[in-house]
Design goal:
The complex is a heterodimer of chains A (about 375) and B (about 400).
Chain A (H helix, E strand, L loop, with lengths): L11 H13 L3 H27 L8 H6 L5 H13 L8 H18 L10 H20 L14 H27 L4 H15 L3 H10 L1 H4 L8 H26 L3 H9 L4 H31 L11 H9 L9 H33 L1
Helix pairs in contact in A: 4-7, 4-14, 4-15, 5-6, 7-8, 7-11, 7-13, 7-14, 8-11, 9-11, 11-13, 13-15
Chain B lengths: L20 H34 L29 H35 L3 H15 L3 H15 L7 E4 L2 E4 L2 E4 L1 E2 L3 H31 L6 H18 L6 E2 L2 E3 L2 E3 L2 E3 L1 H27 L3 H9 L4 H31 L3 H4 L4 H12 L2 H30 L5
Antiparallel strand pairs in B: 1-2, 2-3, 3-8, 4-5, 6-7
Helix pairs in contact in B: 2-3, 2-7, 2-9, 2-11, 3-7, 4-7, 5-6, 7-9, 8-9, 9-12, 11-12
Classes of the chains: A mainly alpha (about 375), B alpha+beta (about 400).
């Protein structure tokens, strides 16, 4: 049986009129606010459109023309977009990180929407796909075996941002589970160590941890061992995100009623099997949205590697804008990078809200 | 039927000594503790091998040595030649300065944004939504760099400074604002206001006690107004009501007088405020929406007006939802202020980078920084937790 919405006797113009009346002009204050905002929009939007489109300069324009012109200088972005997207990666080889990212996005799409790819019932195939993709991406980026080898210090741009955040979040997740379980453990030594780790990391700014990774790392490894900058930064990110993820997972663990533990004990399950089969599957389900939010934060926070002179997406944009031929054009570069971050983060948070709704519906 | 009787024959005692829970727990804890100690010992051993090899000394004696660098703007009047300890102190005071101002301003902006988001006016709520999404979904560092370039390079030179209000000048040397010439009467008036606050608190407490005893709440409106507004104004007028503004005046290549906010300080402060307010606004909105509709209906059926409903029913319950996440947002603002290092404002982290390069004591330098941030974080957490305990739901 379908339930029909009550049909309004009014036609759509009248309904639209009523909506406008209610939402924009109901009451004196409301009307005043509406008029004020309309005035602001009329004042600002045409100017913005003129800058973005009408007066904007495209390809053959030079830097001088751009600096004298009144609009955005898209010629600058046309000249620099590959530097911004791929950083110092060798120009001729940039198809490789581009292909690697395409592969990665395809796998992400398949994982996020398994039904559309007929993979919902085949988690093994998905897992195998991921292993193959990761190997392929590593080969594409590093080179070797018929591809020109590319040193790690030349990696940059969006691929670097994605590596730092995705690898960081993936490794941090497993560490975070251990820390969250440790913080709720009945053994005092385990609990104290977990609490000390989590609170220590959460009390220090990320940039402090990155400085430590860069400056202190050579001091704390045995003489002769050398680890590249990317790996050092990566370790700092893993250690940092793990503390925050652990707190989110702890929230999920606290939401599991004691009856679940008792039921598992009654079935004769030991500690690890109780956690793996009963507690964690339920707890992690609850905290998926929180974990996605932490990941969004991680994605934005990887931009901090700019301060330790690595060329991630923001770092490359910064480098592009410092080019002396195009001196003074920074709005375009930052706008371009900001819109990439905006699209990624908005997509992720939309997906997280979708998950939240579906999980919420499933719980009822 | 003997086969049905209880215990199976010939089975070992239910638990051996090493199977007992307490023993096993003690064992694993000892193993973990030893592993952690061994790892630490290994790291310390590596450091002891590496330090002499790299020609680095260890010790905190460098804190007393004179500093060979400047700390741009600072509130405690640090100058080169004073001890490195004092340089750290200057950086720490700057960090606290930014963090406290940032927390106050972003809370105010977040309240306005949350109200705008909840407004029945569609345009206003969409506008606030766009603001929140834009600022939440781009990195703070990007916003900081953008603001810094805008403030330090794009704003005109002082001669051509842009003056949006009389006495306010925006230029690439910073924001020049009028400042109040402080007279003793101002301090007396501020003290009177403090006294008024204490008096109001006492008045409210007395009113509540009388209400609890008799059911009738004595009117406190006039008393509160007299204490909070009347008393300071009276003191101010009695002191001669001095009011003089020190206006910035263009002289030569820069402004003189007034209060100058450097482009670096302005970019870190406003960057933090714009970014954090977007997150706080969402927290506050969720808190207000989290109060059940029935609570508002119930309050109105008791005859409470709109303001009283908000003050006595909605806000106390919303605060319970808002305070814990808000605490962590205040903490993260404090820690994010370390990004000042990217725009060149001399906060603690910036002083660290300079000192570390200057003295070549990497471990000790970062240890000082970590200790300070940990202390600040724990102090903020303690304060907010105490407040949270006060407002939390008391369950029997």
């Amino acid at each position: 049986m379908t339930i029909l919405a009550p049909v309004s006797p009014l036609g759509w113009p009248a309904r639209a009129g009523r909506w406008v009346w209610r939402n924009l002009f109901g009451g004196v204050a409301n009307t005043a606010v509406t008029l004020l905002i309309l005035w602001l929009l009329v004042e600002s939007v045409p100017g913005m459109v003129r800058w973005l489109v009408v007066d904007a300069l495209w390809a053959p324009a030079t830097a001088e023309q751009c600096l004298q012109g009144a609009g955005a200088c898209w010629a600058f972005l046309q000249a620099k977009y590959r530097l911004i997207l791929f950083g110092p990666y060798p120009y001729e080889e940039q198809w490789r990180p581009a292909l690697a990212m395409l592969l990665f996005f395809a796998m992400v799409a398949a994982t996020c929407f398994p039904h559309a790819f007929r993979l919902a019932a085949r988690p093994r195939r998905l897992l195998g796909g991921w292993f193959a993709t990761v190997a392929l991406i590593a080969w594409l980026l590093r080179g070797g075996a018929s591809l020109e080898p590319v040193e790690v210090r030349l990696w940059g741009g969006l691929p670097l941002t994605l590596i730092l955040s995705v690898v960081g979040a993936f490794c941090a997740f497993w560490l975070a589970i251990l820390l969250a379980l440790g913080r709720r453990s009945a053994m005092p030594v385990v609990r104290w160590l977990s609490v000390a780790y989590i609170e220590l990391i959460r009390g220090v700014p990320l940039i402090g941890l990155l400085f430590m990774a860069i400056v202190l790392f050579p001091l704390i490894v045995p003489p002769g061992v050398d680890v590249d900058k990317l790996a050092r930064a990566q370790i700092a990110f893993i250690l940092f995100f793990a503390a925050y993820m652990a707190e989110a997972i702890r929230g999920g663990l606290q939401a599991i009623p004691a009856g679940q533990y008792e039921a598992a004990a009654a079935l004769g399950l030991g500690y690890w099997r109780t956690m793996r089969l009963v507690v964690l599957p339920q707890a992690l389900r609850v905290v998926i949205p929180a974990l996605v939010n932490i990941f969004i934060g991680a994605f934005k926070d990887t931009s901090l590697v700019l301060i330790i002179a690595m060329f991630d997406l923001l770092g490359s944009a910064n480098a592009a804008k410092s080019d002396s031929t195009w001196w003074g054009l920074y709005v375009e570069a930052y706008l371009f990078v900001a819109s990439i971050y905006l699209v990624f983060c908005a997509l992720m948070s939309a997906y997280s809200q979708r998950l939240e709704r579906r999980l919420g519906a499933g719980r009822g | 039927m003997a086969s049905l009787s209880a215990s199976p024959p010939g089975r070992a005692p239910a638990s051996r000594w090493f199977n007992r829970r307490g023993v096993r727990r003690a064992f694993w804890q000892a193993v973990l503790a030893l592993a952690v100690l061994a790892a630490l010992a290994w790291l310390v051993g590596n450091v002891r091998q590496n330090l002499p090899r790299m020609g680095i000394q260890f010790g905190f004696d460098f804190l007393a040595q004179p500093a060979g660098f400047e700390v741009g703007e600072n509130l405690i009047g640090f100058e080169p030649g004073q001890s490195i300890f004092r340089a750290y102190l200057a950086g720490m005071v700057n960090t606290i300065h930014v963090a406290v101002l940032g927390i106050i301003l972003s809370t105010i902006l977040a309240m306005l944004l949350a109200l705008a988001r909840l407004s029945p006016n569609w345009l206003l709520s969409r506008l606030a939504w766009a603001y929140v999404e834009l600022f939440r979904n781009t990195p703070l560092l990007l916003q900081l760099l953008f603001l810094h370039i805008t403030f330090a390079q794009v704003l005109p030179a002082p001669r051509l400074a842009w003056s949006p209000l009389p006495g306010v000048f925006l230029s690439n040397r910073g924001f020049m604002l009028p400042s109040l010439v402080v007279e003793p009467a101002h301090i007396w008036a501020a003290a009177a206001f403090g006294l008024g606050l204490v008096g109001t608190w006492w008045l409210q407490r007395r009113a509540r006690r009388i209400q609890e005893a008799t059911g009738i709440r004595p009117a406190t409106g006039w008393g509160t107004a007299a204490l909070l507004a009347g008393l300071p104004v009276a003191v101010f007028v009695a002191g001669g009501a001095p009011f003089a503004l020190d206006l910035p005046v263009l002289g030569g290549f820069n402004f003189r007088g007034g209060h100058t906010m450097s482009p670096e300080f302005a970019s870190i402060l406003f960057g933090l405020v714009f970014y954090s307010a977007a997150f706080m606004a969402e927290t506050m909105r969720a808190g207000i929406l989290g109060v059940r509709r029935g609570q508002i209906d119930a309050a109105q059926s008791l005859g409470l007006g709109r303001l009283l409903t908000l003050r006595l029913v909605v806000m106390p319950q919303a605060m319970r939802i808002i305070v814990p996440p808000l605490t962590s947002q205040y903490l993260s603002l404090t820690k994010s202020s370390s990004l000042a290092v990217a725009v060149g404002y001399p906060d603690l982290m910036r002083v660290y980078t300079v000192v570390s390069a200057d003295t070549g004591r990497p471990i000790e330098c970062i240890a000082v920084v970590v200790a300070v941030y940990l202390t600040l974080s724990l102090l903020t957490a303690l304060l907010m937790n105490a407040y949270n305990r006060r407002i939390a739901l008391v369950e029997r």
